[in-house]
Amino acid sequence: MALAAQAQPRYTVSADQLQQAVAQRFPMRFGVPGLVDLDIQPPQLRLLRQQNRVSAQMSVAAAGPALEHTLRGWFDVDFALRYEPADRTIRAHRLQFRNLQLPGLTPQASDLLNAYGPAVAAQALQEVVLHQLRPQDLALADSLGMRPDSITVTDQGLVIGFVFKPL
C-alpha cells in the first residue's frame, strides 16, 4: 500500500514560481475616499510548512487627508491554498490579517487603518492565483484517471497530490 502511494503522480511548484505569479498583480492602490490612500508593493511570500499555509508581508505607503504626511510601513497576512478545477489554478483562500505597522501613525489613524486592514488584505490577496497548471502538467494524472487534490506546503514550495476521479 505504501508503495502505491509513492507511485502516484505529484506536481511541484517552487517558491520562486509562487513569488513571480503573485508579484504580477502589484503594485496596487486602495483608498478610503477623502481619508487615506494605500499603495501596496508586491508581497514577500514565506512558506509556513508547519501550518500548511503561506504568509505574505507587503510594504505599504499611506497618504491622504487623515495623515499629516506619507507614512511607510508594512502589513502581514497568511492564507491557506485551494485548487480551482475550472481554470486549473492554485489560489489563496481563508486569508487571515495579522497586523499593520506604520511607524509614526497617530492612535486614531492607527485604529482607522487597522479596522480597514482586513478589507485591504482581502482585496489584495483573497483568491489571488498563485499558479496555473497547464494541460500538459495534468496529462499523466488525467491518463490515470486522477485529479489534483491535496496541496502541501514544503520548505521549497508546494506539492500537489492527486486522487482518483469519482466514477
Helix content: 10-25%
CATH architecture classification: Super Roll
Q: What does the average pLDDT come to?
A: 88
Poorly predicted runs: 1-5
Silhouette:
elongated
According to CATH, what is the topology?
A: Bactericidal permeability-increasing protein, domain 1
Which structural category fits the helices and strands? alpha+beta
Classify the beta-strand content into a percent band. Answer: over 45%
Radius of gyration, whole Å: 19 Å
> What is the domain total for the residues?
1
Number of helices: 4
CATH superfamily: Uncharacterised protein PF07273 family, DUF1439
Secondary-structure element string:
HEHEEEEEEHEHEE
CATH class: Alpha Beta
Describe the SSE topology:
Layout: H1 2-7, E1 10-14, H2 15-23, E2 28-32, E3 36-40, E4 44-48, E5 53-63, E6 71-84, E7 89-101, H3 107-125, E8 129-132, H4 139-143, E9 146-153, E10 157-164
Antiparallel strand pairs: 1-10, 2-3, 3-5, 4-5, 5-6, 6-7, 7-8, 9-10
Give a verbal description of the structure.
With 167 residues, this protein is α+β, with helices and mostly antiparallel strands. The protein is built from four helices and ten strands. The protein has one domain (2-164): Bactericidal permeability-increasing protein, domain 1. The protein has helices at 2-7, 15-23, 107-125, 139-143; strands at 10-14, 28-32, 36-40, 44-48, 53-63, 71-84, 89-101, 129-132, 146-153, 157-164. Strands 2, 3, 4, 5, 6, 7 and 8 form a seven-stranded antiparallel sheet that branches. A three-stranded antiparallel sheet has the order 1-10-9. Strand 5 and strand 6 form a beta hairpin. The protein is elongated and about 60 Å long.
